[in-house]
Amino acid sequence: MSLLPQRVFSGVQPTGNLHLGNYLGAISRFVALQQTHDCIYCVVDLHAITVPQKPSELVANIREVTAAFIACGVDPKRHIIFNQSQVAEHAELAWIFNCIARIGWLNRMTQFKEKAGKDRENASVGLYAYPTLMAADILIYRATHVPVGEDQKQHLELARDIAQKFNNDFAESITAAGHGDAFFPLPEPLIQGPATRVMSLRDGAKKMSKSDPSDNSRINLSDDADTIAQKVRRAKTDPEVLPSETPGLAGRPEADNLVGIYAALADGSKADVLREFGGANFSSFKGALVDLAVAKLGPIGADMRRLQADPDYIDEVLREGSRRARVIAAENMKAVKEIVGFIS
Ligand code: TYM
To answer: 72 in ligand 1 pocket by Cβ < 6 Å?
Structure first.
């Protein structure tokens, strides 16, 4: 196995309503990894159009995600922030991966089944092939680590299967081209922390999601302090007090969710939170959660608004990030073409 440098890659779709789940499950982890890794963070606009988007809203949403990355603390000078469609190699490698991945593998993807719903015949081909593009996003940079929320685990497993099959299918050619016995690393999902699956505030059995018709189900990164307070106070709970230890959260999905959110915002664990709040009723716990959420998210929302008011700056960040991403992607694509047997 050739030794590749560690590199982090992850992506977020520009489809509106960035929420607390995106922040705690993904973007806050992006920020932490900057200290230890070279990171590439992508606004995945090609993924967004797997379902219809209004062009004027798409442009605004791409800028919103970019602003969120920066406002949360990703440094576009030290690391790379860009939008996927500016680096054509993503789509190019995705085609090759469409010819590597098996239909049977894609048929198992639960997210496609959920998103396509009953009217599967009418879903776009892009929605079906979505995970091969996601594999290409990661592997065009030969990234080794991928911070994501729990819901992306299956897609990451598929990316590993694709990398493995490519390495096997082209083993001879990979060695002949001087890449040792594997060209692609098997990317490792980083699904870490107390909030890898943030649930809806209205229903502890449902994931917090941008597409939930109830805005009260989620805290948006753009919500102001009053809105955050209102949504937390209205969040569904149960009649018991909080337990003192984590096993006491079993069978109490709403309590578990709020404790997980508190823990993630406070950079601690659920056990820490229960040590402090065990025996407390929800009204006092929610009061503390409002204070913490407003203190953490308020400045992020304000910074996002400030950045979004300067689209020229954001577009320049994306242009410059794309330029740097393209250098890495072009070099790897050239190697892939040689391995596959294309003339370039
Ligand atoms: P997307 O845009 O749906 O979500 C962006 C990130 O947020 C995480 N997330 C959550 N984490 C915890 N709780 C939640 N309720 C919650 N909701 C969303 C997601 O797990 C994700 O990490 N397919 C990806 C985008 C993508 C990508 C990639 C990711 C495209 N290419 C390559 C990694 C690597 C997606 O739709 O994420």
So the answer is: no
Q: Which two tokens stand for residue 56?
A: 């004027």
Q: Is this prediction's pTM over 0.90?
A: yes
For a ligand 1 pocket test, name from 112, 115, 148, 160 the mutation site with the most ligand atoms within 8 angstroms of its C-beta: 148
What would you measure as the largest C-alpha separation in the chain, in angstroms?
69
User: Is residue 115 among the annotated active site residues?
Assistant: yes
Summarised one tens digit per residue, pLDDT across range 169-223 is 999 999 999 999 999 999 999 999 999 999 999 999 999 999 999 999 999 999 9
Q: Give me the residue label for tokens 């189900």.
A: 217
> Domain 7-196+310-340 adopts which CATH fold?
Rossmann fold (3.40.50)
- Pocket flag, ligand 1, residue 14 (CB < 6 Å): no
Domain 215-306 in this protein, CATH class: mainly alpha
Minimal-distance CA residue to ligand 1 atom 19: 149
Contact between residue 96 and residue 340 where contact means Cβ atoms under 8 Å apart: yes
Is pLDDT of 34 > 50? yes
pLDDT interval class at 5 (50, 70, 90): confident
* Contacts with 144 (C-beta within 8 Å, 6 or more apart), sequence order: 4, 5, 6, 7, 8, 185, 187, 188
Cβ atoms of 37 and 124 closer than 8 Å: no
Closest alpha carbon to 196 in 26, 9, 27: 26
Q: Residue 268: left if φ>0, alpha if ψ -120 to 50, beta else—which one?
A: beta
Instruction: Give residue limits of the domains in the chain.
Output: 7-196+310-340, 215-306
Across residues 94-98, what is the average pLDDT? 98
Judge whether 158 and 101 are in contact, CB under 8 Å: yes
pLDDT band at 2 (very low <50, low <70, confident <90, very high): very low
Give the pLDDT mean for 69-91: 98
Which percentage of the chain shows pLDDT scores above 70?
A: 99
Nearest atom within ligand 1 for CA of residue 44: 30
Q: How far apart are CA 26 and CA 46, in angstroms?
A: 19
